[in-house]
Write a structure and sequence with these properties.
Distance between the termini: 43 Å
CATH class of one domain: Alpha Beta
CATH topology of one domain: Rossmann fold
Number of strands: 12
Order of helices and strands: EHEHEHHEHEEHEEEHEEHEHH
Oligomer: single chain
Helix content: 40-55%
CATH architecture of one domain: 3-Layer(aba) Sandwich
Amino acid sequence: MVIDMLDLKRKRILLTGGTGFLGGAVHRRLLAIGVPPAQITVPRSAVHDLRRWETCVDVVRDHDVVLHLAANVGGIGYNVAHPGQLFYDNAIMGLQLMEAARHASVERFIVVGTTCEYPEHTPIPLREESLWDGYPAPATAPYGLAKKMLLVQAEAYRREYGFHAIHLLPVNLYGPGDHFDPERSHVVPALIRKITDAKQQGDDAVSVWGSGQATREFLYVEDAAEGIVLATERYDDPAPMNLGTGMETTIETLVRTICSIMGFTGTIQWDASKPEGFPRRCLDATRAQRECGFVARTLLADGLRATIAWYEANARVANV
């Protein structure tokens, strides 16, 4: 539903997760459109534990807009190892923060969800109408379902209380400043670090999880930030909204592209005994284009070059 544009320059904004990978990009985007720095609050997790009700009540106070990006998140390996933590942390943070925001009469609440909410065998491209057509992929289901409960909460609060919450579904993000810790990194930074290590150690092969035939869609982090801010300004509807490029890429193609950019000529060894998550992922992004005018602008190869260049210049910090 198209609405009168929300003038964020005149709003007090709470940005959870604002020091993280995506949150930092959203923060930069808000500043770029003219939001005064003093009107953006970024709670630090070391001080503000959003799993505590009292903290949620405290941080939402005196804010007009809440952008909820804070999450306990990681790659497939991290999801397999910590399903309980991922379910509890993400569910309790979001549920309590939205309830606190309702009590504080926040004007608009934005939840940044995940494509892990989609059923495992949904037809491609993924359309928002298919979100309830089955169970998510088991490896990432606890994380995906925790986020999905926030969609249920948003819809219920809109019906009963007239609360204005929206739910966004970005695809796999990547870009400069990503997390490169093997324990928690997603596929792009994990591959970049793995290939960097292989080159430095003189290895002539790298092992990659899965068969290489799974597909993903990759959204450059600065494009994702633009889409989130546009949706905050222009979208107010209970229906969830995808944010993506609409371009499907196999993991094999991704690996070979990264190897080419980095000049690695060794062998790729596919470990099919390891999980690779959803067999295919590609979004129908027409709703975001129609409702918000959002179109991702960064080509995958260009975004990968920028990410690799950043990592090579910041590896000591990025590997922490």
